[in-house]
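Exercise 7b. Backbone tokens:
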């Protein structure tokens, strides 16, 4: 008789764990259009002397053409890194280390917004720009 409540608790824990896995897989699929773009840029970086590493649920790329790409983004050459889905592109391994906490916020935004992240980010940046505020502050 005592086993029945324990069994139901076990089932409940297993269902919660399964739902977390399903949500994680859905988040990867939802963010995948941007992740694929990041992977393409990362592979170009690898072919031009760059490096890659896995950190948590992201792949980080740095160096090679990725360094050039990040340095030539609109915010300017001081840009440390940029997030595309579950990929983070940085100028160097040190810039990735410095920017990781900030970029993980963007990873969670990509998981929440999926394909809508690009337009949402642009609209938010434009809104701040028209309000006379710097979107990168
Ligand atoms: Zn940012």
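Sequence design result:
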């Amino acid at each position: 008789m005592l086993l029945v409540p324990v069994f139901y608790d076990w089932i409940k824990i297993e269902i919660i764990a399964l739902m977390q896995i399903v949500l994680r897989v859905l988040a990867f699929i939802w963010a995948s259009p941007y992740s694929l773009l990041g992977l393409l840029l990362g592979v170009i970086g690898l072919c031009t002397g760059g490096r890659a590493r896995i950190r948590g649920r992201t792949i980080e790329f740095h160096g090679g053409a990725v360094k050039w790409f990040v340095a030539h983004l609109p915010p300017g050459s001081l840009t440390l890194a940029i997030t595309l889905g579950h990929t983070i592109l940085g100028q160097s391994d040190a810039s990735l280390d410095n920017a990781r906490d900030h970029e993980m916020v963007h990873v969670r935004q990509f998981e929440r917004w999926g394909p809508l992240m690009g337009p949402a980010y642009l609209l938010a940046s434009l809104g701040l720009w028209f309000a006379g505020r710097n979107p990168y502050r």
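Instructor comment: The chain has four helices and four strands. Strands lie at 51-55, 58-62, 81-84, 87-90.
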